[in-house]
Amino acid sequence: MSTTSTLIQFRLNGEPVSRQVEPHHTLLELVRECGLHGARESCGQGLCGCCTIVVNGQAVTGCIYPAMHAEGAEVGTIEGLEQDGQLDPVQQAFMDAGALQCGFCTPGFILMARQLLRQNSEPSDHEIRHFLAGNLCRCGAYPEIIEAVKLAGQRMRAAA
């Protein structure tokens, strides 16, 4: 172990975690070392959204976010959304709307869609496109993704 490593403590999907991290480690590397592989590295430059992770309620690009910044934070990944065997409403809507395609980008889209719907439970197509502009889908499932976000919003409003 390098002498430049630092012990950090944080909560990952509600569970306490302690890990040694190097200054160059990213949050994506950290959560993957913790056994969570939903967030993926694609571009490695923070441009595609595949590595989206939530830190203290805000979505971040995990491939460029320094792991050390997770010290004391609440970190959430796609794996933490399911509760007691029930999918999150956004996860379920993505399945129901056929917005999964290959699934590589899906975790990032779902986490961003959840953030959007917390801010605006009834976004327009334009607002959805604008908010999700930092997430790329190479399969071209954009119409289904927009439908999934709208469906999730409808379900969340009905449940409230």
Textual characterization of the structure:
The chain is of the alpha+beta class. It has 2 domains: 75 residues, Roll (Ubiquitin-like (UB roll)); 71 residues, Orthogonal Bundle (DNA polymerase, domain 1), CATH 1.10.150.120. The protein contains 5 helices and 5 strands. It has a 5-stranded mixed β-sheet, with helices on both faces. Helix 2 packs across helix 5 and helix 3 packs across helix 5. It is globular and about 50 Å long.
Strand content: 15-25%
* Secondary structure: helix percent: 25-40%
The helix/strand order is EEHEEEHHHH
Average pLDDT number: 96
Structural class estimated from helices and strands: alpha+beta
Task: Give the name of the CATH architecture of the largest domain.
Answer: Roll
CATH class label of the largest domain: Alpha Beta
Radius of gyration: 16 Å
Name of the CATH homologous superfamily of the largest domain: Beta-grasp domain
CATH level 3 topology of the largest domain:
Ubiquitin-like (UB roll)
Indicate the overall shape.
Answer: globular
Count of beta strands: 5
Number of domains: 2
Unreliable segments of 5+ consecutive residues: none
How far is it from the N-terminal to the C-terminal residue, by CA?
49 Å
Number of helices, counting only DSSP H or I runs of 4 residues or more = 5
Largest sheet: 5 strands, mixed
Across the major sheet, the strand order is 2-1-5-3-4
